[in-house]
Amino acid sequence: MSNKAQIDDEEDENFKKIKEGFTVNYMQMRDGTKGQVMWEVKSWDLKKSNHTENITKELLKNILKDYKYRSLWFRMHVSLRDFIKNDGHNLSNEEYKFYINPNSHADFLIYNKMSRKPVLVIEVDGISFHEQQEKQKVRDLKKDSVLSKVGIPILRLKTNESNEAKRIINTLNKILEE
């Protein structure tokens, strides 16, 4: 084992120990230009959380409080078969198998509160998982294809990018204008 690999393993172990005893009591994200609070969390259990999805969840809560989005809300980890009705959308056999699999889900489903109609799917893509694992790339392409065929837009937020709030707002505005 190289010295670098040994150091990385030691750092991983140290991080795990720190994470076990670490609690976030308060965290806040503000817009850099206006100083407006985009999201805040009063407590955050690091042992139970997927950090990037929790950040996106809090961001969505804050964005959807805006009056112009009053008809919308969201759910997390919704199985595709729970919100997509396959009414002759010409899914291939592979896409159909993917769609009916209970493990095929949307990270975030934004929907109309009154009609329950899906408006947008948001996927939070961890770079090391989504770009470096071939099987996950294939699943992402299948999900994109299924959603495209049923007419539900998808927004992918990569964990190494920024301006998530702006991208979500711009996407929602385009959808609401249609």
Structural class: alpha+beta
Low-confidence stretches: 1-8
Widest sheet: strand ordering: 3-4-5-6
Question: Do you know the CATH architecture of the largest domain?
Answer: 3-Layer(aba) Sandwich
Number of strands: 6
Rg, nearest Å:
19 Å
* Morphology: globular
Largest sheet: 4 strands, mixed
Summarize this structure briefly.
This protein is of the alpha+beta class and 178 residues long.
Tag the structure with descriptive keywords.
single chain; 178 residues; alpha+beta; Trna Endonuclease, Chain: A, domain 1; two-stranded antiparallel ribbon; 6 strands; 43% helix
Structure characterization notes:
With 178 residues, the protein is an alpha+beta fold. It has two domains: 1-49, no CATH class; 50-177, Trna Endonuclease, Chain: A, domain 1. The protein is 43% helix and 21% strand. The protein has seven helices and six strands. The chain has helices spanning 3-20, 51-63, 80-83, 93-100, 127-130, 134-149, 164-177, and strands at 27-30, 37-41, 72-79, 105-112, 118-125, 154-158. The strands form two sheets. Strands 3-4-5-6 form a four-stranded mixed β-sheet, with helices on both faces. Strands 1-2 form a two-stranded antiparallel ribbon. Helix 2 packs across helix 7 and helix 4 (93-100) packs across helix 6.
Topology, pairings included?
Elements (H helix, E strand, L loop, with lengths): L2 H18 L6 E4 L6 E5 L9 H13 L8 E8 H4 L9 H8 L4 E8 L5 E8 L1 H4 L3 H16 L4 E5 L5 H14 L1
Parallel strand pairs: 5-6
Antiparallel strand pairs: 1-2, 3-4, 4-5
